[in-house]
Amino acid sequence: MLAALLWDVDGTMAETERDGHLVAFNEAFEALGLPWRWSVERYTELLRVTGGRERLLHDMTTQADAPAGAAERDRLAAALHAEKNRRYGQLVERGAIALRPGVLRLMNEATASGVQLAIATTTSRVNLEALLGAQLGTNWPTRFAAIVCGEDAPVKKPDPQVYLRCLDALQLDADETLAIEDSPNGLAAARAAGIATLVTRSLNFASHAFEGALAVCDDLDHPAAPSPHLKGARAA
Ligand code: XBP
Ligand code: MG
């Protein structure tokens, strides 16, 4: 029996990447006096690397004017990430990014049916707090039986760590839960933890095949077509 829905946040609950994180990353580059700017196309490629700090470090390997030493790169990535998160927080606190269609309805229906809600995200806690505080109100954590974010599971998706820690916190087996994801890395992470996964397509992965998903939908208010790859959807 289904006991819990395990929610990804970025892309799944809200379209946070293009109008949120990307805008804030580019503002952070400017604020720290760097000439770097990421286009939507470049950012879409960079989303293959989960975690904002990890994404910055990855991009530095392609920037001729990035610091040469690892320690200096780490310091710059940490400063940029902190500035990005501060600006992202300001954006979402102003209500600039809404929840996607069907998200609140599904949360309410699940809770009313006795199905627990949990969060399994690679994003930083501060970004999660800013988004859900703005969209669900200050009591938002009481809606969730477990909240696992980037700081709690530092080995990021596609590694299953965040999902395994979420199952641990819930004291549930994988086959009692369903993950809701929007990205190939998220799907891979959930599947590697043995969790069946519903994909809700986001802007950044609009045409991806999502092989291995239980089902794929355009958003949570539109019925999901069973995946042609349904066979084996629960196994990693
Ligand atoms: C989300 C991420 C995050 C966000 C930025 O992936 O990869 O890095 O892009 O947030 P998912 P932070 O939706 O698969 O969890 O800067 O806080 O990392
Ligand atoms: Mg996501």
Mean pLDDT: 95
- CATH architecture heading of the largest domain: 3-Layer(aba) Sandwich
Across the major sheet, the strand order is 3-2-1-4-5-6-7
What is the assembly state of the chains in this entry?
single chain
Portion of residues in beta strands equals 5-15%
CATH class of the largest domain: Alpha Beta
By secondary-structure content and strand pairing, the structural class works out as alpha/beta
List the total number of helices. Answer: 8
CATH fold type of the largest domain: Rossmann fold
Question: Termini separation (Å)?
Answer: 20 Å
**Gross geometry:** globular
What does this structure look like?
This protein has helices at about 15-30, 40-45, 50-60, 70-95, 105-110, 125-135, 160-170, 185-190, and strands at about 5, 115-120, 145-150, 175-180, 195-200, 215, 225. It has about 240 residues and is α/β, with parallel strands linked by helices. The protein has 2 domains: about 5-15 and about 100-225, HAD superfamily/HAD-like (Rossmann fold), CATH 3.40.50.1000; about 15-95, Putative phosphatase, domain 2 (DNA polymerase, domain 1, Orthogonal Bundle). It is globular and about 55 Å long. The two termini are about 20 Å apart. The mean pLDDT is about 95. Magnesium ion binds near residues 182 and 183.
